[in-house]
Amino acid sequence: MNLCNEISIGRLIYRTTQTMTLHGEKLLKPYDLTAEQFHLLKNISENKALSQSQLCEIVQKSAANVTRILDRLEKKNFVKREKNPADRRSIHIFLTVQGKELVDEVSSLFQDFSELLTKGISDQERALLAIILQRIQDNLSTPTKKWPQ
Prior knowledge:
CATH superfamily of one domain: Winged helix-like DNA-binding domain superfamily/Winged helix DNA-binding domain
Low-confidence stretches: none
Number of helices: 6
Strand content: 5-15%
Mean pLDDT: 90
CATH topology of one domain: Arc Repressor Mutant, subunit A
CATH class of one domain: Mainly Alpha
Largest sheet: 3 strands, antiparallel
Helix content: 55-70%
Order of helices and strands: HHEHHEEHH
Structural class: mainly alpha
Shape: globular
Strand order of the largest sheet: 1-3-2
Number of strands: 3
């Protein structure tokens, strides 16, 4: 088998993302959660009276995808949807008590995971990495003729 040995930034980011996702999914398995589901729960916990459209924007997922994930989380009694009293067309999403407890517990696991990720990396290197990754994200978010959005 012939392996691609090119060490490009894109390949390193891709491989790191794959490895992080694999480890994250292993951490979440005992809680019957996926990384995608926890990402939504975490964002709901950090925002009060969040509408479904706002959540879609924050997590950068389609309305259909967010609806599907919320349906599963609601069946597990981690979230509840309530009509927005100010706009009947809108729905607010809240964590249940069980959802809050779950986010607190799993967040502490991911804090430990985060410490493992940055082991041996100085604060200065972390800050530089954050700047570089944000710049890459910004570059990808800016439409160009060659790479339309």
